[in-house]
Structure formats: structure tokens, C-alpha cells
Amino acid sequence: MKQEHESDLNISYTKIGDYFFPNIALPPDAGDIGLWGRRRKEFLRKHRPIGTEKPLILTSV
After folding, report:
1. Kind plus residue range of the DSSP H or E element containing 48
2. d(Cα 32, Cα 28) in Å, to the nearest integer?
3. pTM score over 0.85
4. How far is CA 59 from CA 17, 56, in A?
5. Which member of 4, 13, 46, 47 has the greatest number of CB atoms within 10 A?
């Protein structure tokens, strides 16, 4: 069994400030979130509305 090391993965990174973030994305055909994903999305839409009752306010100091 072949062991994969970090050098074998060939993941590129973007540096933002002092942090490195991997450049990853879903494949174009990964659009279906499944039954539980749809239920979670509906729950959040009903119970956690964004921007209506509780607007998100971002401030900088």
C-alpha cells in the first residue's frame, strides 16, 4: 500500500496576510447537496433569516 505524503498531493496555496489558504474548489458536477443538506438549508431559511430581523452590522475599530 502506497503512503501519500504532503509533497504527493500537489495542492497550491494562496497567502493572505500571514496565513496560507489552500486553493480548493468543488468539481462542477457536485451540485446536489442531498436530502439532509436540503433539510438543513430549509431549516436555516426559516429559523435563521439573514438581514431581516437581525441585520448583520460589520464595523471596524
Report:
1. none
2. 11
3. no
4. 20, 10
5. 13
Which amino acid, one-letter code, is at 51?
G
Integer Cα distance of 14 and 21 in angstroms: 5
What grid cell was written down for 14?
494562496
Give Dmax over CA atoms of the chain in angstroms.
Answer: 55
Q: Spell out the alpha helix ranges (H) of the chain.
A: 6-9, 34-47
According to DSSP, the residues that pair with 14 across neighbouring strands are 21
6-19 pLDDT, tens digit each: 555 688 899 999 99
